[in-house]
Amino acid sequence: MQKLIVNGGQRLRGELALQGSKNSALPIMAAALLSGEECVLKNCPKLTDVFAASRILNCVGCKCTFSGNTAVISSENVSENTIPEELMREMRSSIIFLGAMLGRTGECTVCCPGGCELGPRPIDMHLAALKKMGADIKESFGRIICRVPGRAHGARISLPFPSVGATENIILCAVTAEGETVINNAAREPEICDLCGFLRACGAEISGDGESRIVISGKDRLHGCEYSIMPDRIAGATYLCMTAAAGGEIILTNACVQAMEPFLSVLEQTGCSIYTTENRIFLRSGSRLKAVSDRIRTMPHPGFPTDAQAVIMSALVTADGTSVFEENIFDCRYRHTDALVKMGADIQVLGKIAVIKGVEKLYGANVEATDLRGGAAMVSAALAAEGKTEISGISHIDRGYEKVEEAVRRLGGSIKRV
Ligand code: EPZ
Question: How far apart are CA 145 and CA 110, in angstroms?
């Protein structure tokens, strides 16, 4: 079992190029299935979730290979319609292959992705939408068998909640469906725009992505392309929070500044100095941070991103004053608070509210990561803490952060993987 050993108390200082976005790479890898040709993905992050997605592609008959941060996916012959249970279990977001498989072969069998460390992860909106597009869906013994007699057809779909995954699955099925699909109350996350940018490069006809109403006109065929994946806005938020927590200064290069605005507008309330150009972010954290006076409410984009909740909390636990969080997206996304309290933080969790009373100092402790962003928050808190912290369960962190210890060491942090 690997661990990260962090010796905190040092200020950070350095420059970091942002990795490609995990939450953009995964749906784009599924979308590559639809082209029937070769797609070259640049700026593809090397993450365990990305490797899991490549195993799914290879399992259904595609050929997915990597050289550095470039993935090459050939999808000439998709021969298999079932995604094996063990691959589904490895990564719950593999449900994103459902829409692409239906769009490509008209058939797909997956298993219920099951809950995850953030609470139940239902897919009712995904299935209801695909049914409206002509899919016949049977659920038995935890397996979901989807079949579209003939070809999927366009539909007008209003999502009860702007679900990122449901929006992506609808788009993936609609781009080669018969006729037009309209999605109302669509998710507006930047990764949706990136997925649509990739699909347009493959010849798809999509408009309105980034807004709440997306219109897709189905095409008979798509083609291969070369595309560069957008930078990871949550990894960016993470390294900025690490620097804010430990003190110091950082320059993030090839950052997606506009996509990070909802997060940056809260971070600057802590008193950090933040300067941005079109694709670079400079942050300096000098003295003790200030608590954020307005409640930090996680909301669908362009609200404050739920994926940045844990990491900004890791910076606020030693701020001067009290900050209040309201987690509105997932049912149990405060599991990292146990570890922060063990390191000396003063946090009260009441349902979806978390009250953070700033303390003077954190102290190193042995903690265990329980989810991806919570694990990143522990690294951040450990860098600010006095003494040594041992973090286990780091496979969670490796799902979304490319070589996290190398990035932290580049910033001057004392960290090693054992
Ligand atoms: C995506 O998950 C991201 N994952 C998550 O990032 C992110 O936290 C989330 O969007 C919200 O931004 C990927 O892109 C791979 P949702 P997704 O569907 O698509 C409920 C990370 O740390 N819901 O927008 O699963 C659901 O239970 C990960 O990188 C239904 O009820 O998120 C949740 O409460 C974590 N029924 C809420 O909607 C459905 O059919 C938001 O889920 C679908 C979702």
Answer: 7
Please give the distance, rounded to the nearest whole angstrom, from the Cα atom of residue 299 to the centre of ligand 1. Answer: 11
Closest ligand 1 atom to Cα of 124? 40
Q: Position 312: which residue type? A: I
**Could you tell me if 18 and 235 are in contact, meaning their C-beta atoms sit under 8 angstroms apart?**
yes
Written as one letter, the residue type at 186 is: A
Could you give the residue ranges of the DSSP H alpha helices within 18-158? 22-32, 48-59, 85-90, 96-104, 124-132
Q: Is 233 in the pocket of ligand 1 (CB under 6 A)?
A: no
Angle at 317 between CA 312 and CA 318, to 5 degrees: 115
pTM: 0.98
Closest residue by CA, ligand 1 atom 44: 163
What domains, with CATH codes, occur in the chain? 4-18+231-417 (3.65.10.10), 22-228 (3.65.10.10)
Q: Which amino acid is at 387?
A: G
User: CA 1, 85, 165: angle at the middle one, nearest 5?
Assistant: 90
What's the pLDDT score for residue 86?
87
Tokens of 227: 């595309």
Query: Does position 303 have pLDDT exceeding 90, yes or no?
Result: yes
pLDDT single digits (tens) 229-284: 999 999 999 999 999 999 999 999 999 999 999 999 999 999 999 999 999 999 99
For the residues of 130-197, what is the DSSP string, one character each?
A: HHHTT-EEEEETTEEEEE-SS--B--EEE-SS--HHHHHHHHHHHTTSBSEEEEES----HHHHHHHH
Rounded mean pLDDT of 215-231?
98
Q: Does 377 sit in the ligand 1 pocket, CB within 6 Å?
A: no
Q: What is the band of 117 on the pLDDT scale with cuts at 50, 70, 90? A: confident
- CB-based contacts of 142: which residues, under 8 Å, 6+ apart? 111, 112
Pocket test for ligand 1, best of 164, 171, 307 (most atoms within 8 A of CB): 164
User: Atom of ligand 1 at shortest distance to CA of 234?
Assistant: 29
